[in-house]
Structure formats: C-alpha cells, structure tokens
Amino acid sequence: MFKKLIGQRAFSTSFSWFLKASIEGNGKVVSVNEGSKDPLKFPGIWLRDNCQCEVCYSENAQSRRIDYSDFSFKVKAENVEITDKVLNVNWSDNHKSAYHIDWLTDRSFTKEKQEQYLNEFYRPPYQTWGKSKFKDVVKYFEFDEVIRDDKVLKEWIETLSTYGIALIRNTPKDKTVARTLANRIGFIRQTTYGEEYVVQAKPNATNQAYLSAKLQWHIDLPYYEYAPGVNLLHFYEQTKTKGGSNIIVDGFNIAERIKNQHPEDYQVLCEVVVDWNDITVEQDIPYHNIWRAPVINLDADGNCTRINFSIPQRDSHFNVDVDKVIRWYEAFGKFVNMVKEETMLFKVNEGDILTFSNVRLLHGREAYDDSDANVRYVVGAYMDWDIIYSKWRVLKNQLANRH
Length: 403
Fold this sequence. Notes:
The chain is an alpha+beta fold. It has helices spanning 44-49, 101-106, 111-122, 134-137, 143-148, 150-163, 177-185, 251-261, 263-271, 322-341, 385-402, and strands at residues 5-6, 9-10, 21-24, 29-32, 40-43, 57-58, 63-64, 77-83, 86-91, 96-100, 140-142, 165-169, 197-199, 215-218, 230-237, 246-250, 274-282, 285-293, 296-298, 304-307, 344-346, 353-357, 361-365, 377-383. The chain folds into two domains: 5-115, NE0471 N-terminal domain-like, CATH 3.30.2020; 131-402, Double-stranded beta-helix (4-Layer Sandwich), CATH 3.60.130. The strands form eight sheets. A six-stranded mixed sheet has the order 11-12-22-15-24-13. The protein has a four-stranded antiparallel sheet with strand order 14-23-16-21. Strand 9 and strand 10 form a beta hairpin. The longest helix is centred in the C-terminal third of the chain and has 20 residues, at 322-341. The model is unreliable at 1-18 (pLDDT under 50).
C-alpha cells in the first residue's frame, strides 16, 4: 500500500534516521523527525487533503477522490506517531491517515527536493543560446534510431526541450515521415492548415509561406491561444540554388538579453497586449483567428514560456491606451535589432527533419528560385508540448524501471 507510484516511479529510499513526529501550531503543522537539525514540516491541511487511504485516494487512477462536499478546511491533527517508517495521524474529523516516510520525503516542502522533482519530472530546464553558439547546440539524430530506440527518442526530446532545436537525418523517401515521427510520440496537432501541410511555392498563395520570396522571422500561428508547441518540417525536396536557407533565432535568448540590458523595455514587452490575427481561406473554408498577448509571455516563476512574433500577423488594431503605443514601438524596436544581430542562417539538407519549438524559435527562410527543375517541397506537422512532455516522462520511468 505504501510503495506509491508517481507516473511509473517507485520510491524505496531508506531514511532510518526519521525517529518521531510532533504536532505544532495547535494542530496545523506536523513536524517529522523532531530533534533533528532540519525537521520536515507538513501543513496539516495538506496531509489531510492527501490522505492515501482507499476512501480518499484511488490507487488505480492515482488521483485524489476525497469527498469535498464534506471536507473541513479547519481540520487539525490530534495525534501522530511513526511506526515502521509510517506516519500515522488521527484527525479532528475522526479520520485516520497513514503516510510512508519515503512518500513524505519525496514531497517535502524543502526547496532542494522541490527543485529536484521539477527538474526531473516537470520538464528539462531550457538553455538559451546566441548565434555564436549555434553549432554547439544543434544536434543530429538518426531517424531509424529515434523511431526504434526509446533511449534515443528520450535524448531527442530532451535536446529539443533544452535548446529548442534538433535535426533528424537519413529519413526514407516518403512524404509521411513527419506523421510517422509524430505518431512515435503521440499524435499530430490539427490546425487551420489540417494535419500535415505542404510548404512550396504556388500561384495565388493565401499565405506568405507559399511564396518563394523571403519569409521573415515569425512563430507559426501567433493568433492561436494555444499555438502549436513544436514544428516538424520534413525537407522532402530541397532547392539546389543558393537561396532557401533557414532563418533561426532563439527568442528566449533575445528576451533574456533585453531583460538584462534594457529592463524597462523588457517590462513593456511582457505587459503590453498585442493583437495577432489571421484572415484566410484554407481548403475553401474561411477563417478569422484572433489572439491577444504580449510579445514575451512568462510563467508564474518569471520564466519564458512563449514568444509572439510575426510581422504579417500583427493586427493593425492595437487595443491599448494611446499613450502606450509609441513606448511599445521603442521597446519592440530594440527587440527586433537584437533579433537581427542573433539571426543564424543554415540550409537543411534534403531528407532531414528540422524539429524546433514553435513558441520559442523565431524562424523564416531566405528567398529562392522556384522552377520545375528546382523544387523546394517541405512537409510539415505540428505537435503540442503537452503530448511530447508526457511521452518524455513515460520514457524516463520505463527506462529507469528496466534498470
């Protein structure tokens, strides 16, 4: 009962130095290992909320099923004791709970333990990079190994998450390669452009990506509230001319630089809401997408989670106070200048898959000559980070259990 699994991870660490427990704060806090230099303290309300008995917790679903219609937020611990590495608690609501010490230790409120868990199982911490470091961070993976070897698949996901970019080479001559890769992880994210989409020059294009002209920096679909997290671009055919090189910039690096060098401009780019839109027709279906968000998006800890950037998709409607407009352009101008400085050009080889974080890397393409004898044919597909990170955690647990 007490060897709990989180995901597929089991804890069996020995902590024989846990001797006893005590109640503090009039029953509101339970202290484990009283008398040690650094006892672990657990809020009583949290312990009661996470009772592991069959009434309060579903082992099969690995989720809480405590009945909150009859839950007291004023519950207090009345008696505690440790027996055979198990903390037993009697509560003021006449309920009894038992927690294995290993389970408690793994969930302790120490900063060290919390950071360890987040780094190991939330997502790999990202590392920013500039133009000069591009050759050091970009890594190649073999297609067959990613498809067949779980360890290689895990390494590819970690590289993609950490640096925002990774390349997969030696793919079969097949237009379904992007789908095969997506299915290896989970499934394709469908958008306005369907599931798989083809990027090639064509007449009367409704999207600038479908021209042979230069495609400047952007993220795809900034006008989506939930923009696709990852782009898979399979270069089925590559232009033989000098044009058509890919444009790549680490947007998180730009955000970091402007934060350090121009903190007031950084604040403007994090706070002023911009309108992003797309009015188009795809496969005879009309679309009008709008999303409003700043250029730099942060999580609750102040870390970058998304960069919004696309000159064509930035709406002429700017729904902010008029006195903020000029100030925003000043800050945005500094952002753009840094993007110019850090722009990296490289040409993906025919048959390779360029995989990158769509919400992090600003990307584009140089102009190229398009003719029947010089074709550039790219098959793309999107995936969501949620599905990729889920696969990563499953792989971590499975690989750990094999050893």
